[in-house]
Each structure stands twice: as structure tokens, then as C-alpha cells.
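Progress against Task 2.4 (sequence-to-structure conversion) is shown through the following example record, which the project officer requested during the mid-term review.
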Amino acid sequence: MWILPYSTKTFVFEMSQMDVIHRIDQATLPFKEEIIDQSNEDKIQKKVFNGRVRKNGFRISQKLLQPNNSIPLMVGKVEKTSRGCLLFVKFVPFFSSLFVFSLVSLLLILTGAFFFYINKPVYGFSCLGIILLHVFSSFYQFNRLAKESTALLNQIFN
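C-alpha cells generated for the chain above:
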């Protein structure tokens, strides 16, 4: 899976599994939350994640004010131990982000192959350079946002 952006983190907590899930749930806004009155709006603004929290895990992402295709989806699993719990978090791209990433990469590869086929290697190498720039910038942006999400996750436990 080295071709696609991906990251993992493991957290060790002395608190119980249910306490960890409860804290994550308190910081997470469920999907399709309705703002009914002013007091509910204040509660919604304090949430830092969007997503679903289950009994043993969660699928959440950082709450955004503007669209961002590089935002990672945090898929977490909480396992209890004798002295607390372990939180395993995988940072993976959303399906739509993978689709756009794959589509742009495929179009650039096909364009580069076409230019090599018609004997225009300068344009072909330009396409390869753009592919590399596209991949490196996507990985950089994904990892930067994964670090931001990790910092937010740390913040709710401190």
C-alpha cells in the first residue's frame, strides 16, 4: 500500500476502554446533525471531529470549515488491556480522494505515454515530472493533515 497515502498511530491509555470511547464521542459531531436552537449550535462548535463512534472503535475525520481533498479518515479500534487500553488509529484517504488521485495519475500516465509514442520525449518527461510532483504533494498534504488530526486527538485526552 506504499503507492497511496497511509499512516498508523498507537496510543496507550491508563483509562478504561469506555472512557476513551466516551471522550472521542464527546468531541465528535455525528453525521447530519441538525442545529435546532442557539444552545445546540454552541455545542456543535465545540466538536472537533465529524463521524461515527461505535462501542469498540470509530470512523472520524477532522471537522473542516472549507473543503479539503487531502483530509484523512481516522479509523480507530480500542482494545482493553489489564491496566487500561490501547487505541489503534489508521489514517486513510477518503474514497473520493482516492478516486481523484487515481484519475489524475492515470490521465497523466496516459498523456505521458502518448507523448513518448508520438516521439515527443520532452513532453513525456514533463508529464512524468508532473506525476511525481502530484504524488509528493499529495503525500505531503495528507501527512501534514494526519499530524494535525493526531494533535487534535491528543488534545481531547489532555
